[in-house]
């Protein structure tokens, strides 16, 4: 081993608190103000609300289906990570009656995830009807400029209008709860509980009247003392993959978060009575990331403590059952003229490599001479040609950035040498072989995106192998950390598919639709309400979705006079 290369000692396990899924899932879509001192914050003013109205000519054939009858127009209920095969299993056992009720009354379809299946670009494509190349959201973070600083993506990074922007401009009242990248808050007529609320509840929830009520609900559920003291977001460091204390703490917190989400979701909706609700619920996602091995122990590679298995074997199903109850509450609030859309962006698999994460790739770059570290063990950008950028801890499909002059803060690679350095790094990485002659990558190539310059998909089958670099042999696990997470979206090269169920006026019953994409929701919601579809949207009108199809009208774009252009 080269003496100048400092490979960190292999720790027993990597705590989940570093994972972006926890930062965005618990720190975002749970959105339930678990910070201390919330009783003494200075509340913002409530927004003045206006009355809903119609401003555009609409098709009379569709308007009759979408007419106001005192109920909501659309209930879009997102369940991040809900896995359709698990739901089918539970329905077959006689569970999840409300999932079954919705399924029997509408159209269902599977949705191919993006690759990699990262939440922000997927949910933003759902909200805009556009691909990431148009809406501008590509990851959980807005990239590293060479200073080592990342920012969580927000609505100010989005370069296209969301469906709620379009509908609010038409005078409708909007409810937005937990949606990824929904801060800074945009909604004026309605309410927002954004994905940033748990980090900064004073800014993440509007209007103040809703914020006050959610604080009161949370204090009641937690108890006043716990509410004032706050609830720590970070789970304890896990000592191994069967750490009983870790799972006890995680079980308590996800149970609590689930109750808070369900309670406050219904509270905000019933208080404000919006015309449209767009909601993203990530409780299932987080629960399955950590507890899925107990639901499917036969699919998990490492031994599972039988006592933990007995204690937590039903926990994932318990959360599914609670979401069925929440769905039932919303179905009771719907009217015959309400469109109810249940959506999951991607499913789940038990991670076949038991939570190993390839998040030390910079060490390989260091061995190859493309990256330098300072005495503190941090990247020395002033002497580094390339580095990992914008990756999540759990990614195996990863990206490198060239440390380019004029782009990175401490960029050293001249603009004219960009292609030469990309080629040099690609050549060196493609030459890497395991000791049995296998490539380290499923694929590796240049990528022209804001997220990186080189994209590489690492083979999970390499976990137990060794690799030869510059004539020396290294166990690949030196470049990995072991995570407590057992559930993943990445076990299949294409990602486990998402799904939707859509029930409402003029929507076919008992039908399975093919080739539905994330981008198809907005065009078909607009069409169902009698509004034209934007010609610049990547989503398409799906004739097969409707009982009585009506050819859609089109408008060039909804982006005109928009600050999202």
Question: Counting H and I runs of at least 4 residues, what is the number of helices?
Answer: 17
Major sheet strand order: 7-6-5-8-1-9-21-2-22
The proportion of residues in beta strands is: 15-25%
Q: What is the overall pLDDT average?
A: 83
Structural class: alpha/beta
How many structural domains in the coordinates?
2
Stretches where pLDDT falls below 50 for ≥5 residues? Answer: 1-12, 14-67
Largest sheet entry = 9 strands, mixed
Q: CA-to-CA gap between the ends?
A: 52 Å
Overall body shape? globular
Gyration radius, rounded: 24 Å
Strand runs, count: 24
What share of the residues lie within helices?
25-40%
Organism: Candidatus Magasanikbacteria bacterium CG10_big_fil_rev_8_21_14_0_10_47_10
Protein name: Phosphodiesterase
Transmembrane segments: 20-41
GO molecular function: hydrolase activity
Quickly describe the structure:
The chain is of the alpha/beta class and 565 residues long.
Topology diagram in text:
Blueprint (H helix, E strand, L loop, with lengths): L19 H10 L30 H4 L10 E6 L4 H9 L4 H8 L2 E5 L7 H10 L3 H4 L5 E2 L8 E2 L10 H7 L4 E4 L12 E4 L7 H4 E2 L1 H15 L1 H6 L14 H29 L3 E6 L1 H13 L10 H7 L2 H19 L5 E6 L4 E2 L5 E2 L3 H8 L17 E3 L8 E6 L15 H13 L2 E2 L6 E9 L2 E7 L7 E4 L2 E4 L5 E2 L4 E2 L9 E6 L7 E2 L8 H8 L4 E2 L19 E2 L10
Parallel strand pairs: 1-8, 1-9, 2-22, 5-6, 5-8, 23-24
Antiparallel strand pairs: 2-21, 3-4, 6-7, 9-21, 10-20, 11-19, 12-13, 13-16, 14-17, 15-16, 17-18
């Amino acid at each position: 081993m080269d003496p100048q290369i400092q490979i960190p000692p292999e720790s027993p396990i990597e705590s989940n608190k570093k994972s972006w899924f926890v930062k965005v899932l618990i720190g975002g879509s749970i959105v339930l103000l678990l910070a201390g001192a919330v009783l003494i914050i200075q509340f913002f003013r409530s927004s003045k609300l206006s009355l809903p109205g119609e401003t555009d000519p609409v098709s009379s054939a569709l308007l009759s289906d979408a007419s106001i009858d005192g109920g909501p127009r659309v209930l879009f209920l997102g369940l991040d990570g809900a896995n359709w095969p698990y739901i089918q299993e539970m329905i077959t056992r006689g569970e999840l009656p409300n999932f079954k009720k919705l399924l029997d009354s509408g159209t269902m379809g599977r949705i191919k995830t993006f690759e990699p299946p990262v939440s922000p670009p997927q949910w933003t494509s759902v909200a805009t009807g556009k691909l990431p190349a148009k809406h501008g959201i590509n990851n959980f973070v807005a990239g590293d400029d060479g200073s080592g600083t990342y920012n969580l993506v927000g609505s100010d990074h989005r370069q296209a209008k969301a469906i709620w922007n379009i509908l609010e401009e038409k005078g409708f009242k909007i409810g937005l709860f937990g949606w990824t990248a929904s801060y800074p808050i945009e909604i004026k007529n309605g309410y927002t509980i954004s994905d940033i609320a748990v980090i900064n509840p004073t800014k993440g929830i509007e209007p103040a009247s809703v914020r006050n009520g959610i604080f009161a609900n949370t204090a009641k559920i937690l108890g006043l003392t716990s509410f004032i003291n706050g609830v720590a977001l970070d789970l304890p460091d896990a000592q191994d993959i069967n750490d009983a204390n870790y799972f006890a703490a995680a079980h308590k917190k996800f149970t609590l978060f689930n109750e808070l989400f369900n309670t406050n979701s219904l509270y905000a909706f019933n208080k404000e009575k919006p015309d449209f609700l767009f909601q993203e619920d990530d409780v299932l996602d987080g629960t399955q990331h950590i507890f899925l091995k107990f639901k499917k122990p036969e699919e998990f590679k490492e031994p599972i403590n039988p006592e933990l298995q007995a204690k937590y074997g039903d926990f994932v199903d318990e959360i599914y059952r609670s979401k069925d109850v929440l769905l039932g509450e919303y179905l009771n609030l719907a009217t015959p003229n309400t469109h109810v859309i249940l959506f999951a962006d991607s499913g789940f698999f038990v991670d076949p490599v038991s939570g190993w994460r390839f998040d030390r790739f910079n060490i390989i770059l260091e061995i190859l001479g493309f990256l330098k570290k300072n005495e503190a063990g941090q990247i020395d950008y002033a002497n580094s040609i390339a580095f990992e950028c914008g990756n999540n801890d759990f990614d195996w499909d990863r990206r490198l950035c060239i440390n380019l002059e004029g782009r990175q803060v401490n960029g050293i690679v001249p603009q004219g040498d960009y292609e030469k350095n990309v080629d040099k790094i690609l050549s060196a990485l493609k030459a890497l072989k395991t000791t049995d002659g296998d490539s380290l990558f499923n694929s590796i190539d240049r990528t022209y995106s804001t997220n990186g310059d080189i994209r590489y998909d690492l083979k999970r089958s390499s976990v137990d192998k060794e690799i030869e670099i510059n004539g020396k042999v290294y166990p690949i696990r030196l470049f990995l950390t072991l995570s407590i997470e057992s559930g993943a979206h990445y076990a299949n090269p294409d990602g486990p598919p998402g799904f939707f169920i859509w029930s409402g006026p003029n929507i076919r019953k008992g039908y399975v639709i093919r080739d539905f994409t994330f981008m198809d929701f907005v065009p078909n919601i607009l069409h169902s309400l009698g509004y034209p579809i934007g010609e610049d949207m990547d989503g398409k009108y799906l004739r097969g979705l409707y009982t009585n199809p009506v050819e859609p009208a089109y408008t060039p774009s909804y982006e005109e006079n928009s600050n999202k252009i």
